[in-house]
Specification:
It is built from twelve helices and two strands, in the order H-H-H-H-H-H-H-H-H-H-E-E-H-H. By secondary structure, the protein is mostly helical. The protein has one domain: Glycosyltransferase. A two-stranded antiparallel sheet has the order 1-2. A hairpin with a 4-residue loop joins strand 1 and strand 2. Helix 9 runs antiparallel to helix 10. It is globular and about 50 Å long.
């Protein structure tokens, strides 16, 4: 699932240099999401073994300690490591945008951690962040990366039930639905970044819409997300290898050994997205199809 990082699948060259991905922040979010969804504990333990760090290429002045993982960690040991990772990241913020996708991945993990630990330490840290952001998402209205932080705002609303926490998220969703983009996901065309045209966009945007549907009781948001989810999934998914291409520019590219190129980490993003979506999809064809995709991957 995660590719060469964890030995599941070997790639012979660096993939997808288009983003300076905060792998540590991403894997913290996925570890929290997957572990708390009762996925195999040792996968989560392997994921959180990577120290959380700022995204600068240069080493941080206060590097995160490397966690020691027992051969067969207990849930309590995994939770302890996650707390250490979260505490370090909160105490050592990076320069990344606090309403952007990199930090949003970390917030997803912090919210999951907050639900599993006593007190409101992690919830309050997220409230402080959201307040500084004025409960607004990133500046690019349609871009999935700039919607991602809305997941945390919506989760905080579920905890505190304060309407101001979701006003901006709902306004953006309504504006997007009032003027939707077309379904052409060709990545090298102008405007592709305003659509869910790359595989990790499925982690960034759809869960916002699914949570909004639950909170508002209006299924139109989930219907919108489900339709666009399957447009993207059907477009990027290889039915032979059961893996996702990062985007359409990889359809015809090959590794030096002649094999297709799949972005290993991107497939991890999609698996995390499936977990988050399955929590909100009611019984019916969409949940059956999503469940089959989860088992297949």
């Amino acid at each position: 699932m995660f590719g060469s990082e964890f030995g599941f699948r070997k790639f012979e060259q660096p993939l997808c240099p288009m983003k300076k991905a905060s792998f540590p922040a991403m894997v913290f979010a996925l570890s929290a999401t997957l572990w708390l969804a009762s996925v195999e504990t040792r996968i989560a333990a392997a994921v959180v073994a990577v120290p959380i760090a700022a995204t600068n290429p240069a080493p941080p002045s206060n590097p995160a300690p490397i966690a020691t993982i027992p051969a067969t960690p207990t849930p309590a040991e995994v939770l302890s490591i996650m707390q250490k990772a979260a505490d370090w990241q909160l105490a050592n913020p990076s320069r990344e945008a606090k309403d952007g996708w990199i930090y949003s991945a970390f917030y997803a993990g912090a919210m999951a951690l907050g639900r599993e630990t006593p007190g409101d330490k992690y919830f309050q840290a997220m409230v402080d962040m959201a307040t500084k952001n004025n409960w607004k998402q990133g500046s690019r209205q349609y871009h999935a990366d700039d919607q991602a932080v809305g997941q945390t705002y919506l989760e905080l609303y579920e905890v505190y039930q304060k309407p101001e926490m979701i006003v901006a998220v709902k306004e953006r969703a309504d504006a997007i639905m009032a003027s939707p983009k077309d379904d052409d996901l060709t990545f090298n065309k102008s405007g592709a970044d305003a659509k869910w045209s790359w595989c990790d966009s499925l982690f960034m945007a759809p869960p916002v819409w699914a949570r909004l549907a639950k909170i508002t009781g209006n299924p139109k948001y989930l219907d919108f997300a489900n339709r666009l989810w399957w447009v993207t999934s059907d477009f990027l998914y290889d039915k032979t290898d059961h893996l996702y291409y990062r985007d359409s520019t990889y359809f015809t590219q090959k590794e030096p050994n002649g094999q297709k190129i799949y972005w290993s980490r991107g497939n991890g993003w999609v698996m995390g997205a499936l977990v988050r979506m399955l929590q909100y999809i009611p019984t019916g064809p969409n949940i059956s199809r999503s469940s089959r995709k989860w088992r297949r991957n």
